[in-house]
Amino acid sequence: MAQIWKGAPVAAALNARTSETVRGLTERGIHPTLAILRVGERADDISYENGSCRRAEALGIAVLKFTLPEAASEKELEETIYMANEDSRIHGILLLRPLPPQMDEERMVSLLAPEKDVDGITDGSLCGVFTGKGTGCAPCTAQACMEVLNYYGVDCTGKRAVVVGRSLVVGRPAAMLLLQQNATVTICHTRTQELAARMREADLVIAAAGRRGMFGCESFREGQIVLDVGIHFDEEGRMCGDVRTAETAKIVEAITPVPGGIGAVTTAVLMSHVARAAELTAEM
C-alpha cells in the first residue's frame, strides 16, 4: 500500500520559513502586503480569497481587497491593476481568474507589474521559469509540487518524470522545475498516443490533465511516486483528482491525496512569494 503524502506538513514547514521572513521584515519597518483583485462573485474565487486572507493573517501578511462587479468594464479593471502596480504599500498582486467574458484575460494579465506577480502568471515570471534564471515567481501549483518532493526527500536527479498536462499554469512550468532538479522529463497530454504506457515508464508522475478520475491502476506500476494536481467534484459533491486514488494507492510507492495534497501547499507557496517580493523591494 502506498504512502499517502499529505500537504499539511509541507505547508506547515513552508509557513514557518515564511513567518520568520515576515518577522524579520516587520522588525525593519517593512510590512509584506498582498492585493487581491476579484471581478464578480464566483463561489470558488471567494473561497480562495477567504482562504488566502486567513493564511496571510496567520503569517502577519496584510491583505488589501479590490472587488469589481461582474459587469465591470476592462477599463475599470485596468485602472485597478495600474493602481495596485503603483501603490508602494503593495508587494504582491493576486488576480483571481477566470475573468468575465467581456474582458481580455491575456491582456489584463500582461498589465501586472512582473515584480508584484506572486502567482507566476505574467510572461516575465514564466520566462524566469523556462530559462532557469530564477527571476520572478513560478506558478504556485507547479512550485507546490516541488515543495512536496523536497519535503518528502525525493532526489529528482536522474529520475524519469512524466508530466501529464501542458498548461502554463501547471504542466509546462512543473516540467521546467523538474528539469532544473536534473530529472529527465517527458510532457504528455490527453492526446498522447499510448499515454498509459508512457506513464508506466516513469519513476515520477505529475497528473495535471484536468479530467476527473482519468487515471487508475492501468496507468501506473509499482515503485512510482504520483502527484495528483487535479481538483474536481464528483456527483456527490466530493472533491477528487485526476487519479483514482483508492485503486492506484494499492500499486504505487507514494501518492498525494485529493483533497489534502498539492492544493494544501499552494496557498503556502503564494504567501512565501509575497514575503520574497517584499524582501526584494527592501533590497532595492
Explain how this protein is built:
- The chain is an alpha/beta fold and about 280 residues long.
- It folds into two domains: about 30-120, Leucine Dehydrogenase, chain A, domain 1 (Rossmann fold, 3-Layer(aba) Sandwich); about 140-265, NAD(P)-binding Rossmann-like Domain (Rossmann fold), CATH 3.40.50.
- The protein is about 40% helix and about 15% strand.
- It is built from ten helices and eleven strands.
- It has helices spanning about 10-25, 45-60, 75-85, 105-110, 125-130, 140-150, 170-180, 195-200, 245-250, 260-284, and strands spanning about 5, 35-40, 60-70, 90-95, 160-165, 185-190, 205, 225-230, 230-235, 240, 255.
- The strands form three sheets. Strands 1-11-8-7-5-6 form a six-stranded parallel sheet. A three-stranded parallel sheet has the order 3-2-4, with helices on both faces.
- The longest helix has 22 residues, at about 260-284.
- The N and C termini lie far apart (about 50 Å).
- The model has no long low-confidence stretch (mean pLDDT about 95).
